[in-house]
Design a protein that fits this description.
Blueprint lengths: L20 H20 L2 H15 L5 E5 L1 H12 L1 H5 L6 E5 L19 H7 L8 E5 L6 H12 L3 E6 L5 H5 L2 E4 L14 H20 L16 H15 L3 H11 L2 H15 L1
Parallel strand pairs: 1-2, 1-3, 3-4, 4-5
Length: 276
């Protein structure tokens, strides 16, 4: 069967420029409703990938997202949110985009067409067999990503692929393929829309479940979050109040002294144990 790029097929809507703003917004929203259902169908594959990532990460392995354009930016975005949210060192989950950091804000000509560069970029991080590489490409044909996945897999890394097309070349390159088929985009070929939304949802699922299984969440709280602003200090203080039964000011002093909810609670309980 010939490979068909569903993500590049003509939009189900036409004459967009003749529509009212309300019509445009309503139709985009109608299309967005399809994304969650498409992502749901990938859960068995995401589960397999997360289980493998956690097993490797407990042995010192890391997670790399690889992508170009929108896909690359979303991988970098998800990786960049891990340190402030879960208090993990930024070296644990890393986003790499074709063309480097310049490509986060500007298109870099031909960056995604280099089959060898993706693996070269990974080598700069001393990638090894404990690591996991997840390639993200709506089209499923991005040479930069496919080349990186093939090389990573050949070197013993766990590999995953996120794409919007079934039976895509990127799926063949990876050990675990997550194909969330969201259908044609509202603006034909604009994969920053439904495809991008679905990619972000899957990245959220991967990184959040990995962090939970790595012990970075207690109950349902981000007990290791970085205290980078007043809102987060207040949230953390209220967590300490709930956990230890202290008054607000005492909890805040304890939190700021130790730098995270988990460390503050552990230190308080250790001090209590010493008194026994």
């Amino acid at each position: 069967m010939a490979f068909v790029k569903i993500s590049e097929q003509d939009s189900l809507y036409n004459d967009l420029e003749k529509k009212s703003v309300l019509e445009i917004l309503t139709e985009i929203n109608q299309e967005d409703h399809k994304v969650a259902d498409a992502v749901q169908k990938t859960i068995p594959q995401v589960e397999k990938l997360v289980t493998g990532i956690v097993s490797r990460m407990k042995k010192g392995g890391r997670l790399f997202y690889m992508g170009a354009g929108t896909s690359g930016r979303l991988g970098v975005l998800d990786a960049s949110e891990i340190p402030p949210t879960f208090g993990m060192d930024p070296g644990w989950i890393i986003g790499i985009i074709a063309g480097g950091d310049t490509a986060l804000r500007n298109a870099v000509e031909n960056a995604e067409d280099d089959t060898e560069q993706g693996w070269k970029d990974l080598l700069e991080y001393n990638i090894n067999e404990k690591d996991t590489v997840v390639g993200i490409a709506a089209s499923g044909t991005t040479p930069y990503v496919i080349g990186a996945l093939k090389a990573a897999r050949a070197h013993g890394c766990l590999t995953g692929a996120i794409t919007s097309n079934p039976d895509a070349p990127i799926s063949e390159a990876a050990e675990i393929a997550m194909e969330m088929v969201v259908g044609p985009e509202y603006v034909t070929g604009s994969s920053r829309m439904k495809s991008g939304t679905g990619q972000k949802m899957i990245c959220n699922m991967i990184s959040t479940s990995v962090m939970i299984k790595m012990g970075r969440v207690k109950g349902n709280k981000m007990v290791n979050m970085q205290l980078t602003n007043k809102k987060l200090v207040d949230r953390g203080t209220r967590m300490v109040v709930d956990e230890l039964g202290l008054d607000y000011e005492s909890a805040k002093r304890l939190l700021l002294l130790h730098g995270s909810v988990k460390k503050a609670c552990d230190a308080y309980r250790a001090a209590d144990d010493d008194k026994l």
